[in-house]
């Protein structure tokens, strides 16, 4: 297996798949908010923006599109899809009956999927975007 660079066609396919997932998650989030009201709405808004709040860590040290190296581990942690997915699976099969917890996972995963669809991914140690 080679470690060749990602081809433009593969990049488009990946971004299209992330966009489809983001649209599904958006519809699912809207449905959950419509069904469960204000607590779900507040949670959806909070967790839709929460991953990007990590960019405020060392905000003055970045520049020219770079994220502060201090913020990179936190940013990368918050932009991995496995964490919100685990929250949603844990809620679905666990004993906790608190819908905003599930909505938090939905909104968080929606944020990650939308970022990937728009071409934003994880960051390198120096704060630059991974390609």
UniProtKB/TrEMBL annotation:
Keywords annotated in UniProt: Membrane, Transmembrane, Transmembrane helix
On the tree of life, the source organism's domain of life is Bacteria
Transmembrane region positions?
Answer: 12-31, 38-59, 82-110
One Pfam family linked to the record: DUF4260
Indicate what this protein is called per its UniProt record.
Answer: DUF4260 family protein
Organism source for this protein? Nonomuraea turkmeniaca
């Amino acid at each position: 297996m080679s470690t060749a660079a990602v081809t433009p066609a593969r990049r488009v396919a990946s971004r299209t798949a992330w966009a489809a997932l983001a649209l599904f998650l958006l519809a699912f989030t809207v449905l959950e908010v419509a069904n469960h009201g204000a607590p779900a709405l507040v949670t959806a808004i909070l967790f839709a923006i929460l991953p990007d709040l990590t960019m405020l860590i060392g905000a003055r040290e970045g520049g020219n599109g770079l994220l502060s190296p201090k913020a990179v581990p936190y940013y990368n942690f918050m932009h991995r899809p496995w964490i919100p997915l685990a929250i949603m699976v844990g809620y679905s099969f666990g004993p906790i009956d608190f819908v905003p917890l599930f909505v938090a996972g939905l909104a968080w995963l929606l944020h990650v999927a939308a970022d990937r669809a728009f071409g934003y991914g994880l960051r390198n140690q120096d704060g630059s975007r991974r390609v």
